[in-house]
Amino acid sequence: MEAFQKIHPLEFYRKFLQRSVRPDGRSLNDIRKTSISTGAITTACGSSFVKIGNTSVICGIRSEVGIPSFENTDQQTNIFVNLELGPICSNIYSSTKPSEQAMSLSSKLNSLVKRLDIPKEDFYFDQEGKVLWYLYVDIYCLDYDGNIMDASILALISSLKNVKLPRGIIENTNEYYKDTEQLRSLQINHYLFPLSFSIIEDFILSDPSNQEEQLSTSNLTITLNENFEICLLSYSGIKPISETILQESFEKLKNRIEYLKSLIDSAQEH
Amino acid sequence: MRGSFRLFYIQKKKEQQKNEQNENKNNNNSIDIQRNNRSDEQFRQIFLKSGIVSQASGSCYIEIEKTKVLCSVHGPRASHKTEEFVAAKFNCELKYTTFSSSVDKYDYTENNKEKDQSLIIREALIGSVRLEKYPKTVIDIYILVLNDDGNVMVASITAASMALADAGVEMYDMVASCSSVCTKDRILLDPSYQEESLPNTTNILVAKMPALNQVTQLVQSGDLSYNTVIEAVDLNIDGCDKIYSIMKQNLIDSLEKQLKDKDNNNNNNNMDIK
Amino acid sequence: MTNTRNDGRLNNQIRAFESEQSLLNKADGSARFTQNKSSVLAAVYGPIEVKNSRKQKILKSLIEVSFTPSVGNTTYLDKEKELLIKNALESIILTTLHPRTQISIIFQVFSDDGSIISCAINAACLALLDAGIEMQGLIGSVTLCYNHDKSIYLDPTAQEEKECKSLSVIAYGSQSSQIIMNKTEGTLSMDLYFKSLPLSKEACDKVISYIKLAVKNRIMGTISTNTTSTTIES
């Protein structure tokens, strides 16, 4: 059977999918076991570790202090997200240059951060906001078994909720001190709930594994916030998608939101 | 965009002020560092787990208290280049995550340290692997330092050796390693980040294959008297044996677990969302 | 529908299309697609030999897209655009006809005044037709922006893109009424999203009929085609 899987992977999958089951025992709508933990990295000011089945990502946030330039202040962001898909997580990635996939995902994550509506005052180092905190969010994939998007979005939100910024003290106008005994966290007004799908022929698979992603003709990722508003919807692939399938996918995510919310919240309690 | 200034911890400033007062009282220059809950020759707790990266041939995760390192091995696999090899090509790459150390500014250009350390790890391991068994292939080792609280090299070499064993690569023996920081009158085994960054200290790293009783790597950085070197190396070699026993036990455990998993191949980890 | 936008257009009015085909000598096919101040040049080379043999696909041809902005170097934002355009075009090109080959599509932005991804996809469609690459059908793309007062602007300018609440790039094919590519970002209620789909479909049909007209003109001998701006009734 293993040989058959290697030589004719698509035919192998088709045999399973026609019976509404996947080779790993899941049904088409099943999602792998998801777990989130926070605060494992002591050197970062916020961190989280997310595992969806075998896929695991670690996310750490580094804080820097900077003086903002006063040109186009409304356009400025204080959070920069970067996703790293290195050779450590899978042999399909090389260490020399970042993959296109990682860059595209980073750009999506950067746009999603803006959806969290974190008030500007939260980044103030001093009282007036002349000096600001800048947060660098780096997400490293440790094990790539598909659905990296969901894992990184969950890692992003839970690590941002884990951020503890020290109180800033300015003495003699250009001596900057941080007081690690007085910590505060960011005020995050929204949640992000992601769910990805792969479409293999006419079957829609929730939470695809690595092999499923490779066999798929199209990929769909949706992200909603707690008010069921779309934060990100990305569909691309060889085959077109109908409106009804989109609607069904939204329903599937809606049913999962409560569970994800409790997962994100309970990860903060430790 | 960024002004030129430096950021300090207020706690450090207070400490500094206190130190200055002390120094005025007695001008004693000896570096004093207190270990809270362990003696100079005591290791921190080590946690090892192999086979955790599903996409790699072999992998290992190691925690030495706060120091956290992940290693995965790809290979032996076909080389992309058409060069002819008598033996397998052996690559090693160490990387620090941007948040692994608590410095205020991460310098993206500075990776000399990573390159140097990769080389040391490669040299420590290459003697143990039977490369001639895998002609025309490549064995790649990738190491990611998630959290640096000292003793990264020992963690990396241990993890890499375990990952190689997990990948089923033929080896003469696993490589165990141990490092210490020598101050003027003390030898601190398994140093923390704070101890490593003390001024005027010497770092000694020993890697060896305990079953063959052969040393594969010995690195000393800094000056030290002959007698202290011998003493420190002896101490480190003993430390290697201790780490080796942990590695061996872990390897046996993971093998037993693999066999057990094969027997009852159920996965009921899945969640139904309906 | 009476309130007008900054440039005097109605909410559901698309800027006038302009296009020019076969303007490059070296390329197998090329086209420029312009909507007022947004203008993109697409060049198609192919099917040619695969340059990087490791990327070669045994059963189909490889599509390579490179997107160069009007100013500055390519950043990760451009990489994302490349991937979106690539995925959209892969679905209409009959890649299985030329296995072990490569089709390169190169974009150069002349000026960016919003809806640039849509512009690029439309330009690519014209350039592919010009190059004579076999396709399943035509592709038309349009950008929508959703404002805070729940109104929808079709074909937004850069200014409108910046001020809006959320932005959606959508592409439809001529052969079915299904979505080929979609990227929506920003906060947007699901009702509004699904309500806007017929509108975008209608707009894409307009784009496709324009492409048909442009190709017709090209065959008749005129390489450039202009239209006035169109209003979409949904």
Walkthrough of the structure:
The complex is a heterotrimer of chains A (270), B (274) and C (234). Chain A is of the alpha+beta class and 270 residues long. Chain A has helices at residues 2-7, 9-17, 100-113, 148-162, 210-215, 243-267; strands at residues 34-38, 46-52, 55-66, 79-84, 132-143, 165-171, 175-184, 193-200, 203-206, 218-224, 229-237. A five-stranded mixed sheet of chain A has the order 1-2-3-5-4. In chain A, strands 9-8-10-11 form a four-stranded antiparallel sheet. The longest helix of chain A is centred in the last third of the chain and has 25 residues, at 243-267. The model of chain A has no long low-confidence stretch (mean pLDDT 88). Chain B has one domain: Ribosomal Protein S5, domain 2 (2-Layer Sandwich), CATH 3.30.230. In chain B, the strands form two sheets. Chain B has a five-stranded mixed sheet with strand order 2-3-4-6-5. In chain B, strands 8-7-9-10 form a four-stranded antiparallel sheet, sandwiched between helices. In chain B, 38% of the residues are buried. With 234 residues, chain C is of the alpha+beta class. Chain C has one domain: GHMP Kinase, N-terminal domain (Ribosomal Protein S5, domain 2), CATH 3.30.230.70. Chain C is 29% helix and 34% strand. Chain C contains four helices and twelve strands. Chain C has helices at residues 76-90, 116-131, 158-163, 190-220, and strands at residues 13-14, 17-21, 29-35, 38-49, 62-68, 101-111, 139-146, 152-154, 166-173, 179-189, 224-226, 230-231. In chain C, the strands form three sheets. In chain C, strands 5-6-4-3-2-11 form a six-stranded mixed sheet. Chain C has a four-stranded antiparallel sheet with strand order 8-7-9-10, sandwiched between helices. Chain C starts with 12 loop residues before the first strand and ends with a strand. Classes of the chains: A alpha+beta (270), B alpha+beta (274), C alpha+beta (234). The A-C interface holds A 100-101, 103-104, 106-108, 111-112, 115, 224-225, 227-243, 246-247, 250 and C 76-77, 79-80, 82-84, 87-88, 90-91, 166, 168, 172-173, 176-190, 193-194, 197. β11 (229-237) of chain A pairs antiparallel with β10 of chain C, so a sheet runs across the interface. Chain B: It is found in: Cytoplasm; Nucleus. Chain B: Belongs to the RNase PH family. Chain B: Residues 42-170, 173-235 form the Exoribonuclease phosphorolytic domain. Chain B: InterPro entries: ExoRNase_PH_dom1 (IPR001247), ExoRNase_PH_dom2 (IPR015847), ExoRNase_PH_dom2_sf (IPR036345), PNPase/RNase_PH_dom_sf (IPR027408), Ribosomal_Su5_D2-typ_SF (IPR020568), RNase_PH (IPR050080).
